Amino acid sequence: MASSFVHLHLHTQFSLLDGANQIEPLIQQIKSFNQPAVAMTDHGNMFGAIEFYRKAKEAGIKPIIGCEAYMAPGSRLAAKDSGLAHNDYYHLILLARNLTGYQNLIKLVSKAYLEGFYYKPRMDKEILKDHHEGLIALSGCLSGEIPYLIGQKDMDGAMAVAGEFQEIFGKEHFYLEVQANGLDHQRVANSGLLEIAKKMEIPLVGTNDCHYLKKEDFRPHELMLCLQTGKTISDPNRMKFDTDQLYVKSTEEVTAAFIEFPNAVTNTCRIADNCDLQLALNKTHLPQYKVPEGFTRETYLERLALDGLAARLKERPSQILPATYELRLREELSIICAMGFAGYFLIVWDIIKFARSRNIPVGPGRGSAAGSLVAYALRITDLDPLVYTLLFERFLNPERVSLPDIDMDFCMERRGEVINYVVDKYGKDHVAQIITFGTLGAKAAIRDVGRVLEIPYAEVDRVAKLVPNQLNITLQQALDQEQKLRDLVETDTRVKELMSIARSLEGLARHASTHAAGVVISEGPLTDHVPLYKGANDEIVTQYSMGDVEKIGDRAIVGGFARFNDRSIMVIGHQKGKTLKERMQRNFGMPNPEGYRKALRLMKMAEKFGRPIVTFIDTPGAYPGIGAEERGQAEAIARNLFVMSRLAVPIISIVIGEGGSGGALALGVSDRVLMLEHGVYSVISPEGCAAILWDDPAKVPDAAAALKMTAKDLVDLHIVDEVIPEPLGGAHRDLNAITDRVAKSLSNQLSQLNDLSLPELLAQRDQKYRSIGAVDGLAAIPQ
Questions:
Q1: pTM exceeds cut of 0.70
Q2: Shortest CA distance to 501 belongs to which of 509, 486, 485, 489?
Q3: Quick one: which H or E segment has residue 372?
Q4: How far is CA 429 from CA 67, 107, 155, 411, in A?
Q5: Following DSSP, what letter does each residue of 162-179 receive, concatenated?
Q6: Is 118 strand, coil or helix?
Q7: 526 half-sphere exposure, CB direction, 13 A CA radius
Q8: Residue pLDDT, tens place only, 270-290
Q9: Banded pLDDT at 708 (limits 50, 70, 90)
Q10: How many whole angstroms separate alpha carbon 508 and alpha carbon 511?
Q11: Which residue, 767, 579, 577, 576, is CA-closest to 669?
C-alpha cells in the first residue's frame, strides 16, 4: 500500500442524521491524503454502498464496503416483552473481503431489518456464524461488547466474547479496535484491549470512527444530532459526542495519535490489502417467466405479438401495408430475443394484462417504449409507432447494456393490488419496492437549523423566505441571487451562523422512505444481490435507491438513431452539464475512457445497420490541473481513431462551437467536416494555455487570441470541408435559419458520400486523414 493508514470505521450521510460525510467530498479528501483505500461502515445499513463503490473506483481509491452492525445482547428475535430497553445493543464493525463477504453482509443487514428490528436493525451471533465467510470483524467503538465489558471491569467476560468472535470469524479475520479520540473512557478501553491482545494473540487495529469530514465540522454535526433527536442545542439532555476528533484525519495525524500502537496503524493496510471486492454493476437478474408447455419464452412472445398485431390492425386499420407491419415486428422480435429480453416483455405484458383483467386503470405507455411495435401489439403501449414514424432503435438496440425502459402507469389507489399480484406470482423473497431518500433542501436546512439554534421562528421565516422559489436551488445560489440575504448574513451574526451551518448540512440524506412507483423483481432471492429494508408500513424495500439499482455508463456521451430527410442516421454528441460542477464532474465536458468506448459502440452499431454517422462537436479544450485527462483516455482515443478510420459507413462531423480536445477525434477521421462560420478550434483552453506559458490568469485574453483557429484557417489546413455561413450576430440569433443551413449542407454531403462505393469511401477517408495539416506549396506528406 502507498500509505501506512486506511480509514476502516467511517460513517457517511447514510448513517442518517448521524454521519455527515457526503460521498464525493469524502473520496476527494481521501485522495488528497494519498490514502489508497477507505471503508464505508454506516449504522446498520448499506444504503450508500453502490454510490460509494462507484465513486471510489472512479477516483482510483479501493472501496471497502462494510457496516457498523447493531448486535442484540441475546437473540435478535427478542422483542418488547423480553425486558429489553430500546438501547440494548452493541456495535460491531463488519467489512467485506470479497464477493462472498459482500453477499453475506447483504444477508446479515437484511435479516437485521426483517427479523431483528427493535428500535434498531439487530443481528446476533447465531446469524454471524451462518454468514461469516468472506468477512473481517473489528470489535467496535466504546459501544462494542468487548470495550463495554472492559469499562465494566469485567475482563474475563471481555476475553470470553473476544474468543467467541475469534472462533466465528477465524484468527486471521478478527481484530481488536483501538481508537484515539481524546476520551477518558477510550483510554481505559484501549488499555484493556491491549491486555487482551497480548494474552490471546489477537491483532490490534486503529480507527477514528469518522462522523464528519473536517475538524471544523464538529459544530454542524452537533446540530445534526439535535435534528435527529428533536432536541435544541441548549438542551442538557441532548445527544452529543464529547470530542471533536471524529473527523477524517490524514495519515500523519493518525500516526501521531497512535504513537503507542504503531502496529494498529499498519494493520489497517494489512486489512485493506486483504479486501478485494469486484462488483459487476451492469448485470441483470430477470425472473424466469413460465410459459405454456411446448413454448420457449421467445416463441411464446412471437405468438403473442403476431396475434396481438392482427387484433390491433382489425381494431385500428391503417393505410400502411400489413407486410410492412409484419416486417417491422419480425425485426423487433429478432433484436429483443437476441438480446435476451423476451422474458422481460412477457413479465410486463403479464402484469398489465392482470391489471386490465381487474379493471385497474392502466396508462397508455410513455417514453421510448412507444417506438416498439411489439409493445403496441402486446397492449403495453397504445400508440401505433408506424403511423407516427417512431423509431424502435430509440427504445432498444444492440448498444444498450441495460434493460429496456418501459414506463407502466397504474391507478394510485389500486397500485397495491398489482404489487400483491407480482409478489404472489414470483415469491415474497423475489419482489421488493425501492427505497428513496429525503434530503435537506435549502429552505428546510434554514428552518431546521434555526429551530435547533432556538432563533425565534419569525426571524428564521424571514431568512427562509429570502431564498428564491427555484427548483433545487442551493443556499450558495440563493446568496448569489438575493442581495437582501447577503446583507443579512453580513450584518447579523446569528444569521451568519445560521447560514453557515445550514450550508454545511444542506443536501444531507435526512430520512428513508418508499419510492412511489419503483418495484424490483429478481430471478433468485433478492438478498443474493441487494440488501433489504423494512418500510414504515412493514413493506419490504431495497436498501439501494433506484439510481444505484440501475446505475451504468457515462452520461457525458449521448447518441442514438434519428431520422433525417426520411433516412435513418446515427447521431452522437456530448452532454456537458448544466452547471460548472456538472461540467467538472464530466471532465470539463470531455468524455472519460468509458465515454469513448460508448461512442465507439454506437458507431459500430451504425455500421452494422448501414447508417451514416453524424457527430456534433462543441467540446472545450483540455484544462490542466483538474484531472481532465483520465488514465486510459489516450488509449481509448487511439482505439477509436483506428476503428473509425475503417468504418464502412459515411462519417460527418459538424463543429457548432469549439472543436477542441475530444472533438479532435471526430475531426481527424471524418469523411466530411462542416463548421459554423464563427466556430473556433482549440486543442487547449485559453485558461490552460495562460497557466502553462505565463502562470498568469490575466493573460487569458492574449492566449485566446493566439490560440483561435477560425473556420477559414481550418479550411486552408484541409481539416474543414465546408463552412456554413451564420446569420448576422451568430447562430443563436436565428435558430431557424441556422438549422435550415446546417440541414441543407448535411443533406448535400450525405448525397455525395452515398454515391461513393465502399472502396472509394475508405480510400478518400484514408487520403484525407493523411493530408490533414498539409499547407499548399509545402512538400506532400509521405504515403
A1: no
A2: 489
A3: none
A4: 22, 12, 43, 25
A5: HHHHHHHH-GGGEEEEEE
A6: strand
A7: 27
A8: 999 999 998 877 666 677 888
A9: low
A10: 9
A11: 767
